[in-house]
Amino acid sequence: MKFIAALLQWKYRRPALSKIMRIILGVGGGIAAYKSCDLASKLVQAGHEVFTVMTPSALQFVGPLTFRALTDNPVGVISTDEPMGSLSHVKMARWADLIVIAPLTQNLLARLSLGLSSDLLSLIFQGYTGPSVVAPAMESEMWLSPQTRARLTELQKERALSIVGPHQGRLASGQTGVGRMAEPQEIMNMIWSLTRPKTLQGRVVLVTTGATWEHFDPVRILTNPSTGAVGLNLARELSARGARVILIHGPRIDEPPWPGVEYQEVVSARDMFQAVEARIHEADTMIGAAAVSDFRPVEAFSEKQKKGQIDMLWPMTTNPDIMAEIGAKYHGSKILIGFAAETEKVFSAAIEKMRAKHLDAIVANQVGRHQGFGDSEYEAQIILSEGHSDNLRSSNKDELANHLADLLKFLKPKISSGTNS
Ligand code: C5P
Fold first, then answer.
1. Does 4 map to a domain?
2. I need a labelling partner for 66 at 20 to 30 A (CA). Which of 107, 209, 313, 395 fits?
3. Are residues 286 and 384 in the same domain?
4. Which residues' Cβ are closer than 6 Å to ligand 1?
5. What is the pTM of this model?
6. How many domains does the chain divide into?
7. What are the tens digits of pLDDT across the range 20-55?
8. Residue 301 maps to a domain
């Protein structure tokens, strides 16, 4: 009964997928200000309402007209500017759901931290009490200086501040070092993360994703069309919800690192199994979204095999079933969720697999040449163990990630670590 009640709660209290916000985009005076034009455009395209406030020195790098056109709102600079009418600094501080400052220069950081309100942005910030996302950008020496450290620590103590970057890379001086502003997409990702409910704080989830590669020789492999998109979406959602995510993935997963996700690349099914076994004790939940190769060549040659040199009948053997092995060892002590990708009889095959592998839930999805992989059409259904099947269907990978994250709120392990054996 308790389980059913939890399930109903899960179904009816689902949080909104995205949140439209009122954002003040603060632009500091650094060369990275040119990237903030792209950021302004991305924010508007995501549906947010944006007012831009530039510092006087930012005007030397980009023009206010650019932001005016991109956001369709007036731009403020000096303390007496009135982009929102009289007493704009008060109105804007109350209006904003979020302040995003990119680039955050050393001088601007010092002003914000010390409470100096010499320009409109600093002035608004002094009266603002909500969350902020800042993207620092400066030369390495400045970023690492004790003054910058002290100002940042101070500001973090007093404000709900999310810091994105800076990264290692080419700096304005032409040198390479830490101090390069995060790319606009990464800042967007951070903003999106803030809108997700923190329902999974304290949880550690191990996710497998992507295809494995089984080598015949150094240049030939047995694999499948999986791009790892399901697991990547899931990892982002879980980490945005506050979970620590260990993502063990196959080769060639190409995406910028997501904050809070620990990536570990493997090649073959056996490598993946070894990695899962080595790290499962850290997690309370495992979600096996990987399209693991069921077979591998008995022998993998270390040199490229020439045509005619090999017998065309290549003996194969089976790979370990990672989810089944983990299920046998950890069911009851960890939450285990698998996937069942099938071309026919999807539902019955999924239930059978869930039982055989001792899973708490399974995601059944139809696959085919033009279905299930990469960006193609996608449909999945979550089935829960103990005879409870859920009619909830996900028609895309973001929706599935959201549903699974919601479900984890109610599927909690009885003990946080250890095995049944
Ligand atoms: O039996 P089947 O491969 O269809 O099962 C799919 C589920 O089992 C997925 O969760 C997949 O990640 C996992 N699996 C595995 N190791 C294998 C094969 C599948 O962990 N060798």
1. no
2. 107
3. yes
4. 208, 269, 288, 290, 292, 294, 319, 321-323, 338-340, 353
5. 0.82
6. 2
7. 999 999 999 999 999 999 999 999 999 999 999 999
8. yes
Nearest CA owner, ligand 1 atom 2: 340
Q: Which long-range contacts (CB under 8 A, 24 or more apart) does 254-262 make?
A: 256/183, 256/185, 256/186, 258/189, 259/164, 259/189, 259/190, 259/193, 260/193, 261/235, 261/236
Shared domain for 145 and 31, answered yes or no, is: yes
Distance from Cα 341 to the centre of ligand 1, integer Å: 9
- Cα(224) to ligand 1 centroid in Å equals 13
pLDDT digits (tens, 9 = 90+) for 56-99: 999 999 999 999 999 999 999 999 999 999 999 999 999 999 99
Q: Which of 157, 289, 282, 272 is nearest to 227 (CA)?
A: 289
CATH number for the domain including 303? Answer: 3.40.50.10300
Q: Kindly give the number of the ligand 1 atom that is closest to the alpha carbon of 338.
A: 10
Residues 351 and 318 in one domain: yes
Is 224 noted as a catalytic residue in this protein? yes
Please identify which of the residues 73, 107, 224, 396 carries the catalytic annotation: 224
- Between the CA of 7 and the centroid of ligand 1 the distance, in Å, is 26
Residue 165's region, left for phi above 0, alpha for psi from -120 to 50, else beta, is left
Q: Are 211 and 177 contained in the same domain? A: no
Q: Are residue 189 and residue 317 in the same domain, yes or no?
A: no
Same-domain pairing of 285 and 137: no
Residue 343 lies in domain: 204-408
